């Protein structure tokens, strides 16, 4: 009988190595337009989180929540893991993620600028830039994914 110590010292079986390949990062996705948009959204969201932490900590939860949601979408798309959940409409979820982020960051950015603190004003500026990036991402999703599906449904 093998103990846990003996199993740890052995080379991994073929099945274990194949199970880890499901999380292999697709480097072509990371250099595509969608990958660059998600990376930009992630970086700007983190910068806004830092600005809110330095000035108005009451608004940092919104930035942190959007950071984790964007990180999850980046992970799912970069590893192609989203294809395992074929019952979900991923373009629609991604579009709703962008629209909700636009609303959240517009409200939080304009609320933060009223404090007249330096970090809050920086968060406002980065928030407006991030809103434009999310709006462009939502526009691209709508044009490439949602409109063609609607026209395919009309033709059938």
From TrEMBL:
Listed InterPro entries: Marvel (IPR008253), MARVEL-CKLF_proteins (IPR050578)
Residue ranges annotated for the MARVEL domain, each copy included: 29-146
Stretches that traverse the bilayer: 67-83, 95-113, 119-139
Naturally occurring in which organism (per UniProt): Myotis myotis (Greater mouse-eared bat)
PROSITE patterns: MARVEL
Record protein name field: CKLF like MARVEL transmembrane domain containing 5
Residues in coiled coil: none
Location of this chain's protein in the cell: Membrane
Membrane topology: Multi-pass membrane protein
Key words, A-Z: Membrane, Transmembrane, Transmembrane helix
One protein family per Pfam: MARVEL
GO cellular component, one term: membrane
